Amino acid sequence: MSFFDTTPTGRLLNCFTGDLDILDQLLPVVAEEFLLLALMVVAILLTVAVVSPYILLIGVILVTVCLIYYLKFKKVTNLFKRLENYSRSPLFSHILTTVQGLSSIHVYGKIEDFISEFKRLSDMQNNYLLMFLSSSRWLSLRLEIMTNLLGFAVALFVVFGISSASYSYKSMAISLILQLASNFQASARIGSETEAYFTAVERIRQYMKMCVPESPLHIEGTSCPPGWPQHGEITFQDYCMKYRDNTPIILNGINLTIHGHEVVGIVGRTGSGKSSLGVALFRLVEPAAGRILIDGVDICSISLVELRSKFSVVPQDPVLLSGTIRFNLDPFDHYTDEQIWDVLERTFLSTTISKLPQGLQAEVVESGRNFSVGERQLLCIARALLRNSKIILIDEATASIDLETDTLIQHTIRKAFQGCTVLVIAHRVTTVLNCDRILVMSNGKVVEFDRPEVLKQKPESVFAALLATAHSSLS
Ligand SMILES: Nc1ncnc2c1ncn2[C@@H]1O[C@H](COP(=O)(O)OP(=O)(O)OP(=O)(O)O)[C@@H](O)[C@H]1O
Ligand SMILES: [Mg+2]
After folding, report:
1. Which atom of ligand 1 is least distant from the CA of 268?
2. Which of 251, 252, 274 to mutate to test the pocket of ligand 1 (most atoms within 8 A of CB)?
3. How many CB atoms lie within 10 A of CB 286?
4. Could you give the angle at which helices 53-100 and 167-210 cross, rounded to 10 degrees?
5. Which CATH number fits domain 2-210: 1.10.8.60, 1.20.1560.10, 1.10.3720.10, 3.10.180.10?
6. Which ligand 1 atom is nearest residue 272's CA?
């Protein structure tokens, strides 16, 4: 996760499109062509040497001169290729941010600025590309002169009859040496291009070193107890977490126990670490200290696949994948259409979906943009319902839903997730009033954790203050 958090999107795109494309498509082709041409050059030189071994001597001198040129040239061409690669990332980033912020750019009249920035970045990238291409032409010109000199030498040998070979051999030597001119310079140029393309390999290897993998998805020989988690009791013990080594501690010494089958509302100011609790539970980030026990089992002792398959989450920014609605609800085809319609009914989506001509097979476009954010969250709730997990985390699931649906949803959460441990992270305090207990977070610490009635009664409690603010803003 930290790799994707810290690497700019432009660079990621460049790596997964540009560099991988070079590695998969271009590199094998140019490498093959280089080998083919280089072997042809060797074969021609050997054949011509039969006419007279002196030609071979001239060949050796020429090859040495070419090698010197090549070694000088190599540094430059690799540098230009690398600069060209690096200059592509900001261009990609710029295109991406422009496309994402198109409406803002129009509203603020910044069209000209963005176009000129685009021109500047693409000019820079094209400059390096031009340098790269011109530098290989620079080499070609010199190599061509060299090979033409070789052709001239062979012609002299043949004309002045220094060699005793037959005329047919001599004429073959002339025709081969004419071919050599183009083959030799092409092989040198393509050879250097091959080498320049290897900078893509170099960059991918750099990323591989930088990218620290998460802990193993499967751990040999260990398995979680059958039927785990039976109750869904979650215990945080002195739990501390930070996103990366160089970032501050986000969750600081959390100690609490959420009983099985309990519905807990989590509230707190923005940035207080509510969503981070979910991140910790799914082990998207490993603990800095302390541990989390679920029904007495330390979640760090089991494999990620087993752990993550036991929970369901309705994320703060719900994402649907491109495909059909059915695929989004049940990607592995585990459930029947009736079961899916049933959960859609319970999340009040069945009328919306049944209005679509293809029903469950209706198309969901990229990131689910043909559904409203509220509908997307409802679909995520439906998916969680379908999976029937023991522990469910809902991150502001009702943030983008109208009040009426909101009440219905609260009712559904209560009814449908009966027997499950439900953690509801809410912005609107009023939506969590009917939870069993309320957890109030502040600066990554637990400040209050009790039944809502108890907290409401305490006039000095943070929850009472939040509630008063909510009521005053409503009225
Ligand atoms: N991927 C991340 N990398 C580094 N720091 C992060 C990351 N995600 C969150 N944080 C930091 O962790 C802190 C808590 O964030 P978190 O998302 O848990 O807040 P939250 O309580 O869910 O807020 P909100 O109510 O706005 O959703 C914030 O200060 C934020 O800067
Ligand atoms: Mg959040």
Report:
1. 21
2. 274
3. 11
4. 30
5. 1.20.1560.10
6. 21
The amino acid present at 475, given as its one-letter code, is: S
How confident is the prediction along the chain (475 residues), in pLDDT tens digits per residue?
Answer: 888 888 888 888 888 888 899 999 999 999 999 999 999 988 988 888 877 777 778 778 877 887 888 888 888 888 898 898 889 889 988 998 999 999 999 999 999 999 999 999 999 999 999 998 898 788 888 888 888 887 888 788 777 766 677 788 888 888 888 888 778 878 888 888 888 888 889 889 988 888 888 888 877 777 777 888 888 899 999 999 999 888 999 999 999 999 999 999 999 888 899 999 999 999 999 999 999 999 989 998 888 888 888 888 888 778 888 889 999 999 989 899 999 999 898 888 888 888 888 888 988 888 788 888 778 888 888 888 888 888 999 887 555 667 777 777 777 777 778 888 999 998 778 778 888 999 999 999 999 999 989 988 888 888 888 888 887 876 6
For residue 209, give both structure tokens. 């070193």
- Does the CB atom of residue 6 touch ligand 1 within 6 A? no
Residue 281: half-sphere exposure toward Cβ, Cα within 13 Å: 25
Structure tokens at 76: 């430059």
Domain borders along the chain are 2-210, 234-474
Check pocket membership of 242 for ligand 1, CB cut-off 6 A.
no
- CATH architecture of the domain covering 234-474: 3-Layer(aba) Sandwich (3.40)
Helix (H, G, I), strand (E, B) or coil at 254: strand
